[in-house]
Amino acid sequence: MHILEWVNQYGYIVLFASLFLELMALPIPTELLMTYIGFLSFQGEMNLYAAILIAFLGSSAGMSLTYWIGQKVGITFFEKYGAKFHFGPERLHKTSRWFQKYGQKTIIFAYFIPGLRHLTGYFSGITKVSFKTYMVFAYTGALIWVGSFITIGQILGPQWEEYQGDLKLYLLFIVLGAAVVLFLYQLIKQQGDKILVFGIDLFKRVLPYLPTVNRIRVVFALLAALFIGSFALMIGLIQDYMGNEFGRFNQITKMIIDSILTDGFIPLLQFIEGMAAHQFLLIIFVSGLALIWFKHMKEEKMDILFGMIIISGGFLLEKALPLFFTLIKEYAHLGSGSTFPSEVTLISIIVYGWFAYVILVRIQHKWIKTSITSLLVLLLFLIGIGRVYLHMQSPGSLAAGYVFGLVWLSLCIGAKEMLHLLTYLKVES
Questions:
Q1: pTM for this one?
Q2: CA–CA dist 332, 244 (Å, integer)
Q3: Is the sign of the CA dihedral 106, 108, 113, 115 positive or negative?
Q4: Most buried among 113, 148, 187, 245, using CB within 10 Å?
Q5: Looking at residue 393, what DSSP letter applies?
């Protein structure tokens, strides 16, 4: 591509100009460019830190200018001329309302989403977001964005062109997943009480017209919807496993982890691995049961019963699922491979996820809940990272373990909450 030839000739100047102009909404393949810059740093033709700094300055300058344009030109320009580039008044107002409500928190994620990153600066200016607030999110996002692609390009080295498309897709999925989680967290945090009241009110209005059998059917229908969505995700993973399609994902993940970690981390990773052992998980389980019992709230016995069902079912799945898929693959003559799904990540996310749920429900102090759940999420992440670095299991198998375990956990918690709701409505009636 011409832009890569220009980089070979003019280096940092092209890098700065490309990031600056791309964030002005010009169609420049900057993610491809940044990955290539990382490759050049691998070859020693460019300095990694200088490249990240120049790219950061270029993207920050572009985001600052788009904010200024949005603030000065404002809504009048888009109402008058927006229709010429498919951004007329109606779409503008819808986007503005959304951005005023959620925009500040999406600026960081927007860099990784083509099309969206080109609009955030303009709409921040149009909707009069504080420039100081805007700078914090925009400049932080710029550093994360450029640092990610340039560093990945250096890690991949000569294989940058082969894998950069896959990496871009993986990063997009990760960012979208994180954005969805953040959105749901903010929604529950800000509107959780209203949503709960609305749901209870809706059930109260509908259920009196249904006989008891139909009420049960409604509950099972909701659980079935949750199960179908979860099952569809599992089917996709199973198809990838049976078709041996985890190869590229495994190679890229191993390459990145091996480039970040060194053997000095091995003692720490082995210690974290011990926190996924059955003995330690049983201690966490007993601690959760004790917390339920001593934090006297309603329906302790039911919560303890569901906890036992969740964890015992998790241990059963830990043994049954890998054996089942091993037999299936041998029967289909597809060869052998690593255990699928990972029994370690499967049981770890079930136990630690259930314990986090108990913390969220039983503990009242927000900072304690936030701190403990954040540490548990980090621990689960490091368990998988450690097993990859220590060559114990493949990334695809570990990821599948997380998904299968999370599906079981969410189904059980969903069933428990549905039962709680029905019990509450029965008492109210």
A1: 0.73
A2: 13
A3: positive
A4: 148
A5: S
Amino acid at 77: F
Could you tell me which residues come within 8 angstroms of residue 14 by beta carbon, excluding any fewer than 6 positions away? 3, 6, 7, 33
* Burial letters 222-254, b for 16+ CB under 10 A, else e: eeeebbeebeeeeeebbebbeeeebeebbbbbe
340 DSSP 8-state letter? S
Strand residues in 224-339 grouped as ranges (E): none
Q: How far apart are CA 280 and CA 162, in angstroms?
A: 42
| pLDDT tens figures, 36-88 | 999 999 999 999 999 999 999 999 999 999 999 888 877 677 667 666 655 66
Which residue in the block uniquely carries the two structure tokens 């043994």? 319
**How far apart, in whole angstroms, are the C-alpha atoms of residue 334 and residue 44?**
43
- CA 381 from centre of chain: 12
State the first-to-last Cα distance of the chain, in angstroms, to the nearest integer.
70
How far apart CA 341 and CA 328 sit, in angstroms, is 13
Residue 210's SS3 state is: coil
Q: Are the CB atoms for 167 and 152 separated by under 8 Å? A: yes
